[in-house]
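call fold(seq) -> tokens
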Amino acid sequence: MLAVGLAITACQAGSSVYLHTLDDLVRNLNEAEASGRFAKKLQTYLKPAVLVVDEIGYLPLSRADANMVFQLVARRYERGSILATSNKAFSEWGSVFGDDVLASAILDRLLHHCDVISINGPSYRSRTVSSPRTEVAPSSDLACPATDI
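ret:
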């Protein structure tokens, strides 16, 4: 929700934003590569002012897929913002990208000039349906109103 809220705020401020899960982004890049349009598809992800990559670590990537992600991150480095969400600690990204060195190279670029917001505690989604919103304790020092999007 925080990433979506920041993306909406960026749009309202006049910035171009593109939001995708990592899985969908990699699938789109693979399809483009298979049809000889990789460079053009990569431009789709390089163009917006803010690229939101959601669910990093939900599914592990193959070495080839991880290399595509590295190409994207390296090309956007210091040219456009990347807002990344993950339920994995940075120390676990080697298993996500199938290689500790590649994960370090991706993290090196992502973490330079960045702000990390670490949210610890129970998941917003895992609360019971019958519990009212006001009973959900904030899971970090960052407080934001709950909104339905």
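Strands lie at 17-21, 50-56, 81-86.
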